[in-house]
């Protein structure tokens, strides 16, 4: 397979604080890669260095056989970043058409309006769109040049369910046409369903890399849910071995553990007041929680 993006020992430091720490990564053409990590892990900084918006402090980045800022490279990449800056005074249609002119082989205007799902708003000023609508416009702008590589930085934040479905359908269609897609998201179920490769970074370092199935299998985490009776306090769960994480949502408790038998045994032995127990094999979220706590 062809490597379309290569990061070689890339680091980025802001005033002595390391945001990306010696990251090496090779991304193959046609893959859909989800870049995951907790807040501040360095995802956006990584994407913005690949896009040439920031320079690495150390290391090199190559994409499409060139450097991020090469004109020929920029012609083939599209990006939907967290803030969509619309140009004051232009309508949705005019904004899309303006972006088409930045590229040598743009998609047809009508196709991009369909992608945005903003047919009814196309003659509205772009600045008057709602937050979710602006993001849909941002998506159409990212696709204006029919890019070979598409970057999506937390793309579905603020989108309603229908917009999300429409969005992922379009992204799946692009993946099926062999486009390379790099996305960051905090919605792990989205990453699980769309990405063929998951890269987890934490504190600027790569900590896991593989398919969702490989990552889940490697961490071997399972989940126990139960409802805590009135007498149960968080302190009573302290000291039980093999617990990766505990979350309380009201009286409903979620425990992530590599050994649910051991946890259940300890709960029974301590005669803790719980009911409605459910045990699930671990999802990507459980694997993720485990990885970032290491
Ligand atoms: N321009 C900047 N100046 C100083 N520090 C920065 C700058 N940009 C990012 N950082 C710092 O670098 C670290 C990584 O930030 P980054 O935005 O890449 O994380 P992220 O993984 O995208 O987080 P989130 O999920 O919250 O978007 C953070 O500690 C952040 O405060």
Automatic annotation (TrEMBL):
<dbReference type="GO" id="GO:0016887">
    <property type="term" value="F:ATP hydrolysis activity"/>
</dbReference>
<protein>
    <submittedName>
        <fullName>ABC transporter ATP-binding protein</fullName>
    </submittedName>
</protein>
<dbReference type="GO" id="GO:0005524">
    <property type="term" value="F:ATP binding"/>
</dbReference>
<keyword id="KW-0547">Nucleotide-binding</keyword>
<keyword id="KW-0813">Transport</keyword>
<dbReference type="InterPro" id="IPR050763">
    <property type="entry name" value="ABC_transporter_ATP-binding"/>
</dbReference>
<keyword id="KW-0067">ATP-binding</keyword>
<dbReference type="InterPro" id="IPR003593">
    <property type="entry name" value="AAA+_ATPase"/>
</dbReference>
<dbReference type="InterPro" id="IPR017871">
    <property type="entry name" value="ABC_transporter-like_CS"/>
</dbReference>
<dbReference type="InterPro" id="IPR027417">
    <property type="entry name" value="P-loop_NTPase"/>
</dbReference>
<dbReference type="Pfam" id="PF00005">
    <property type="entry name" value="ABC_tran"/>
</dbReference>
<feature type="domain" description="ABC transporter">
    <location>
        <begin position="5"/>
        <end position="228"/>
    </location>
</feature>
<dbReference type="InterPro" id="IPR003439">
    <property type="entry name" value="ABC_transporter-like_ATP-bd"/>
</dbReference>
């Amino acid at each position: 397979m062809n490597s379309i993006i290569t990061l070689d020992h890339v680091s980025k430091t802001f005033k002595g604080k390391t945001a990306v720490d010696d990251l090496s990564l090779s991304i193959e053409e046609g893959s859909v890669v989800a870049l995951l990590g907790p807040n501040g892990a360095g995802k956006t900084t990584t994407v913005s260095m690949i896009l040439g918006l920031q320079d690495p402090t150390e290391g090199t980045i190559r994409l499409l056989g060139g450097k991020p800022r090469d004109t020929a490279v920029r012609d083939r990449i599209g990006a939907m970043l967290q803030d969509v800056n619309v140009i004051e005074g232009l309508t949705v249609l005019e904004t899309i058409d303006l972006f088409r002119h930045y590229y040598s082989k743009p998609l047809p205007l009508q196709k991009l309006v369909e992608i945005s799902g903003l047919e009814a708003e196309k003659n509205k000023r772009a600045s008057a769109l709602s937050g979710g609508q602006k993001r849909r416009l941002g998506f159409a702008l990212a696709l204006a040049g029919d890019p070979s590589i598409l970057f999506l930085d937390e793309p579905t934040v603020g989108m309603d369910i229908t917009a999300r479905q429409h969005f992922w359908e379009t992204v799946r269609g692009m993946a099926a046409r062999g486009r390379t897609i790099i996305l960051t998201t905090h919605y792990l179920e989205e990453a699980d369903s769309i990405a063929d490769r998951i890269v987890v970074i934490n504190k600027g370092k790569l900590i896991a890399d593989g398919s969702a199935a490989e990552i889940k299998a490697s961490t071997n985490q399972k989940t126990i849910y139960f409802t805590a009776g009135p007498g149960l306090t968080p302190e009573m769960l302290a000291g039980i071995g093999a617990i990766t994480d505990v979350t309380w949502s009201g009286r409903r408790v979620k425990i992530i553990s590599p050994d649910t038998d051991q946890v259940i045994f300890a709960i029974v032995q301590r005669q803790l007041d719980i009911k409605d127990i459910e045990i699930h094999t671990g999802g990507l979220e459980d694997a993720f929680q485990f990885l970032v706590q290491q």
